[in-house]
UniProtKB/TrEMBL annotation:
<keyword id="KW-0175">Coiled coil</keyword>
<dbReference type="InterPro" id="IPR036979">
    <property type="entry name" value="CM_dom_sf"/>
</dbReference>
<protein>
    <recommendedName>
        <fullName>chorismate mutase</fullName>
        <ecNumber>5.4.99.5</ecNumber>
    </recommendedName>
</protein>
<dbReference type="InterPro" id="IPR036263">
    <property type="entry name" value="Chorismate_II_sf"/>
</dbReference>
<feature type="domain" description="Chorismate mutase">
    <location>
        <begin position="267"/>
        <end position="358"/>
    </location>
</feature>
<keyword id="KW-0808">Transferase</keyword>
<dbReference type="InterPro" id="IPR013785">
    <property type="entry name" value="Aldolase_TIM"/>
</dbReference>
<dbReference type="GO" id="GO:0004106">
    <property type="term" value="F:chorismate mutase activity"/>
</dbReference>
<dbReference type="GO" id="GO:0016740">
    <property type="term" value="F:transferase activity"/>
</dbReference>
<dbReference type="InterPro" id="IPR006218">
    <property type="entry name" value="DAHP1/KDSA"/>
</dbReference>
<dbReference type="Pfam" id="PF01817">
    <property type="entry name" value="CM_2"/>
</dbReference>
<dbReference type="InterPro" id="IPR052899">
    <property type="entry name" value="Class-I_DAHP_synthase"/>
</dbReference>
<dbReference type="GO" id="GO:0046417">
    <property type="term" value="P:chorismate metabolic process"/>
</dbReference>
<dbReference type="Pfam" id="PF00793">
    <property type="entry name" value="DAHP_synth_1"/>
</dbReference>
<feature type="coiled-coil region">
    <location>
        <begin position="259"/>
        <end position="286"/>
    </location>
</feature>
<dbReference type="InterPro" id="IPR002701">
    <property type="entry name" value="CM_II_prokaryot"/>
</dbReference>
Length: 361
């Protein structure tokens, strides 16, 4: 994509004194539920009211949304509260109905983004519209696939474009519902700084008590806004109950989030250094996670050595690792001294793990 500066125009035109905030229930359940939450949010810093009308579910038989009737509820939200409205669309029929209901913002879900055929169908249906269109990252960590979806909408003449970072699926058990893979969002932001970037901490965490911290990390990384699922009775929500927060909690979070503003050269420096340090924090967390995984493998090796009565230290293997890592480090600008110190520490921790297993009675 080239000459993409117009992509940020719609966000700049809003002249927001704070990050863009999109909030509302995961799913529209009843008209009463939709309206109650909307009235709780109408006099806050929330800019768009979101509600899922059609819900793609992993397995059949689960609640799949109320369907088109929910669009009438969103129309009522706009009439009574003045909030702009947003919902997910997954095919041409959804687009046609959402446009007829004058929904202000449409987003493409992670399950749709993985399919160029689905993305193209939706892009064709939206060609020339002035609605805001946000594209969630695909469920798998594939930056090219994500950007390919953006390009399809851009080529369809959609200028009010943005992306939503909602994390990525993994078979590994982590503290997140969807691992954030912050580095991918950072790379996208670096390559296309004019493309508004929204974070979805609700889907990344899957747990309401983690939403604030993930949202703050996103703000530290200079994200443009947040999409937070909000429900007046989250424990009894019909979908994704564990990750939704109450309107009262959302208001408190919006007050507590630290927003970095630029007013002079010193502020510009502080903003840049905060963003870079946030990137360091992301990488450091990844390092700890990787080291934890390495030690789990070491534990398995220790169990195997105990079973086979093999010595913990295997000198030939250790020397081969060091030689390979020194070469790899040189290619990445790391000194031999640093690589040696780092891997000696890792090796010692690995030996300690294996010793505990071998000597355990």
């Amino acid at each position: 994509m080239e000459n993409t500066k117009e992509l940020r125009t719609w966000l700049d035109d809003m002249s927001l004194p704070h990050p863009l905030v999109i909030a509302g229930p995961c799913s529209a359940e009843t008209e009463e539920q939709v309206m109650r939450i909307a009235h709780d949010l109408k006099d806050t810093d929330v800019n768009f009211y979101r509600a899922g009308i059609w819900k793609p579910r992993t397995r059949p038989g689960n609640f799949e949304g109320v369907g088109a009737i929910g669009l009438n509820w969103l129309k009522r939200v706009k009439e009574e509260t003045g909030l702009k409205t947003a919902t997910e669309v997954a095919n041409k029929a959804h687009v046609d109905l959402a446009l007829e209901a004058d929904i202000d913002m449409l987003w493409i879900g992670a399950r749709s983004t993985v399919s160029p055929f689905i993305v193209q169908e939706i892009a064709d249906a939206l060609e020339g519209t002035d609605k805001v269109v946000l594209i969630k990252n695909p469920v798998n960590p594939d930056l090219a696939l994500w950007l390919g979806a953006v390009e399809r909408f851009y080529q369809a003449g959609i200028k009010k474009l943005g992306v939503i970072h909602r994390g990525f699926s993994t078979y590994e058990k982590t503290k997140y519902r969807n691992i954030p893979e912050w580095q991918m969002a950072i790379e996208l932001q670096t390559r296309f700084p004019d493309l508004p970037l929204i974070n979805d901490p609700s889907h990344i965490t899957g747990k309401r008590d983690m939403v604030f911290d993930v949202a703050q990390t996103a703000l530290d990384l200079n994200f443009d806004g947040l999409m937070v699922e909000t429900h007046w009775d989250p424990d009894n929500a019909w979908s994704d109950a564990a990750q939704q927060v109450t309107p009262e909690r959302l208001v408190q979070m919006m007050e507590d989030w630290k927003i970095r503003k630029v007013t002079d050269e010193e502020a510009e420096y502080n903003k840049e250094i905060t963003q870079l340090r946030a990137q360091i924090d992301v990488v450091d967390n990844q390092l700890i996670d990787i080291l934890g995984k390495r030690m789990k493998v070491s534990d398995q090796i220790g169990t195997l050595k105990k079973k086979r009565n093999v010595a913990v230290l295997q000198t030939n293997r250790w020397n081969a690792i060091l030689g390979n890592m020194i070469l790899e480090g040189e290619q990445r600008g790391l000194s031999e001294e640093f690589v040696l110190r780092m891997f000696k520490a890792i090796h010692q921790e690995s030996i300690n793990h294996q010793k505990k297993i071998i000597h355990k009675v």
